[in-house]
């Protein structure tokens, strides 16, 4: 059997970072892998020993606390099986480094976890009739509210005649978010945004249906791995082609991308602890604010704002933080 260091090295392209986990935990579980796909209660799990099929245990299946159920992107420990074609029961989900969540539909106070262990979010929006400043801002905020940075991809640049006007309209809502007009069918336009990824770094793509998320993955994988469909001619709306979440390893281990089904709208879920963690550096000086109940918005004598404004990158972060609070208070 391979020793543990070899094992971790072979899992690194999938994003495994042993330092995140208690080493005792890892010794306890010999078969560790990352969930790449979920179809109801069946999972595909990439391990150092190839792709395994896995299932929930009986106990997990009836677990009321759905937030702890395995999702795509999770690192899980699998039980061994005696026969090759048997499903591996998922013994445990390793602690998550991050998770993309949204507010569950129909219930304002229920979190729906979507995908786990991300480094950033690619928000994808079309430059066709899909283009909507308000919607784009909410998708960006969906990333920020999970403590994750966002990168904005504007697809269908080849079909757009007023890119500069649209870029100018976006300026006030970006708050430091890098933005790239792209043609998903032309890989040369994807080099720059992909530079945000590297071996082991994982991004999830979110956006409306029909904006080209699956087309981008196919382009990068050089195959028709994901199904795609043309949008409706009269309003450019997508047909909700992708119905599952799937994690793909880019060629030459240049990073990982998770495709998600198109969302009608961004339902923002505010992960307070993650928000505080992402903006902790800014909030370090909050004790120096004039008022002890300072919200760090437009409060007089706010040290957080004053300190943040000194540099472009911290000013952008403060703008994100401030927008999140506004959006939160408006819900
Ligand atoms: N010309 C052009 N067509 C694009 C571009 N991106 C996507 N398309 C086309 O738009 C249609 C929809 O693309 P998909 O990749 O299926 O969209 P999706 O975001 O994955 O949609 P869902 O799976 O429904 O969420 C396809 O016909 C693509 O060929 C682009 O940048 N330029
Ligand atoms: Zn303050």
Can you give me a brief rundown of this structure?
This protein has 331 residues and is α/β, with parallel strands linked by helices. Helices cover 27% and strands 21% of the residues.
Description:
By secondary structure, this protein is α/β, with parallel strands linked by helices. The chain has 3 domains: 4-93, Beta Barrel (OB fold (Dihydrolipoamide Acetyltransferase, E2P)), CATH 2.40.50; 99-259, Rossmann fold (3-Layer(aba) Sandwich); 279-330, no CATH class. Helix content is 27%, strand content 21%. It has 11 helices and 13 strands. Strand 6 (99-103) and strand 7 (111-116) form a beta hairpin. The longest helix has 19 residues, at 312-330. The N and C termini lie far apart (53 Å). Bound molecules: guanosine-5'-triphosphate and zinc ion (ZN). Residues 286, 289, 294, 296, 299, 302-304 line the site of zinc ion (ZN).
Which blocks of ≥5 consecutive residues have pLDDT under 50? Answer: none
CATH class category label of the largest domain: Alpha Beta
Mean pLDDT across all amino acids: 92
- How many strand elements? 13
Radius of gyration: 21 Å
**Largest pleated sheet:** 6 strands, mixed
CATH topology of the largest domain: Rossmann fold
Share in helix: 25-40%
The ligands found in this model are: guanosine-5'-triphosphate, zinc ion
What is the chain-wise order of helices and strands? HHEEEHEEEEEHEHEHEHEEHHHH
Describe the protein's topology:
Layout: H1 4-11, H2 23-28, E1 32-39, E2 42-47, E3 50-55, H3 58-61, E4 75-78, E5 88-93, E6 99-103, E7 111-116, E8 120-126, H4 133-144, E9 150-155, H5 163-174, E10 179-181, H6 191-194, E11 202-207, H7 213-221, E12 246-249, E13 256-259, H8 272-278, H9 280-283, H10 303-308, H11 312-330
Parallel strand pairs: 3-5, 8-9, 8-11, 9-10, 11-13
Antiparallel strand pairs: 1-2, 1-4, 2-3, 4-5, 6-7, 12-13
The chain binds guanosine-5'-triphosphate and zinc ion.
